[in-house]
Write a structure and sequence with these properties.
239 residues; alpha/beta; two-stranded parallel sheet; 42% helix; globular
């Protein structure tokens, strides 16, 4: 039987292969989209010109406010601990898991769904999943749960974290964004949390949660260890 170290090395190699394939696919999509993109740019310029000529200057500060949520200039510390249990303990974070009770899709984004944890780990969700990426405004929870089902890891943070901590968290995300989602969450009881949805036991799987009361170098180790442990293991694997 392969050792834990060998298993982690195999997971790392598989992740690098997926990232290379995703990068190649992205290049192909960009080439196909250039012509359509040019048309969109022309239309956008026309619309912008209309509003400039109309003299409407309201709402100009909204983009600046949004940009403050995930500022640049963060730092990514070297990882010191790779074992998830050890890393979580060192960061005083708690680990939870719960068997999923549903994988049903809903078609009405306005339908209310109650989740037993915040952030949610699994459950009924909207039929369209949130896309990978860093969000300054969180998408609907039901789309994030669908992303978990696809094997994504969702990192949630309190928007009132100190600016430097938010910048560091964004830098941590940017360092390895494959199948990752970063979102603000002002309702959860943690300062930072990570969630995932494993496929075992089939068919519904098990939700996973890392909840942390602070964010720092030790917390970044816990998040990276959680990501390495649970990413790409969803009940509905999607590249």
């Amino acid at each position: 039987m392969a050792s834990r170290k060998e298993q982690k090395e195999q997971l790392r190699r598989e992740r690098e292969e997926r990232e290379a394939a995703a990068s190649a696919a992205g290049r192909r999509k960009r080439l196909v989209g250039y012509a359509a993109g040019a048309a969109v740019v022309i239309l956008a310029l026309a619309v912008a010109g209309f509003f400039l000529l109309s003299g409407d200057d309201e709402g100009g500060g909204s983009n600046d406010t949004a940009a403050d949520i995930l500022p640049d200039g963060g730092e990514v510390p070297d990882q010191q601990i790779t074992d998830l249990d050890e890393a979580a303990g060192a960061a005083s974070c708690e680990l939870e898991n719960a068997k999923a009770d549903s994988r049903d899709h809903i078609t009405d984004i306005g339908e209310m769904v109650t989740y037993p944890s915040d952030p949610p780990m699994s459950g009924r969700h909207f039929e369209v999943a949130a896309e990978d990426g860093a969000y300054e405004e969180a998408p609907d929870l039901k789309t994030l749960v669908h992303a978990l089902e696809h094997g994504r890891v969702v990192i949630s943070f309190k928007p009132n974290l100190p600016e430097q901590q938010r910048a560091d968290l964004k830098a941590l995300f940017d360092d390895d964004p494959f199948q990752m989602v970063l979102v603000p969450n002002d309702s959860m009881p943690y300062q930072v949390a990570a969630t995932a949805w494993n496929r075992d036991p089939e068919p519904l799987g098990t939700g996973q949660l890392l909840g942390c009361d602070t964010y720092g170098e030790k917390t970044s180790d816990a998040i990276r260890a959680f990501k390495d442990e649970h990413r790409s293991r969803g009940p509905e694997p999607v590249p």
